[in-house]
Amino acid sequence: MNTDGRSGPVLGRVEVDGAGPGEGLSLAGEWLRITVGKPFAPGAPMAFKLEVDGVMRSLRGKASGSKRREDQRFDVTLRLMNLTRDDLDKLGLKGA
User: Fold this and answer.
1) Rounded to whole angstroms, how far apart are CA atoms 64 and 57?
2) Domain residues for 23?
3) CATH no. for residue 46?
């Protein structure tokens, strides 16, 4: 269970190629929202590592959009791509 009381995986730090470290904010189906130091254009491919329940996982996705935050970082929404069965299981997306 997440620290905010919702069920599902607990997201932690994220390391995006070319954008440095950040945080995983939310996961809804195949849509992930993260915060990083660089914006990504819609459709841009992203390779990154995401901490899920304390374990770093290598994932890929495509950016849907970016929005600047007050702290000058960016909230990036992306769709996860090419997930393995193990990824689906660990992200709580089995059967999605």
Assistant:
1) 21
2) 11-89
3) 2.40.10.220
Tokens found for residue 6 = 């919702």
Mean pLDDT of the chain: 88
Nearest 5°: CA angle at 37, between 31 and 39? 60
Residue 82 lies in a domain: yes
Q: Is residue 60 part of a domain?
A: yes
Strand 55-68, strand 45-52: pairing = antiparallel
22 located within any domain: yes
pLDDT at 6 over 60: no
* CB count in 10 Å sphere of residue 43: 9
Rounded to whole angstroms, the Cα distance separating 66 from 55 reads 26
**Number of domains comprising the chain:** 1
With a threshold of 0.90, does the pTM exceed it? no
Instruction: State what percent of residues in the chain have pLDDT above 90.
Output: 66
**Spatial separation of the C-alpha atoms in residues 93 and 96, rounded to whole Å:** 5
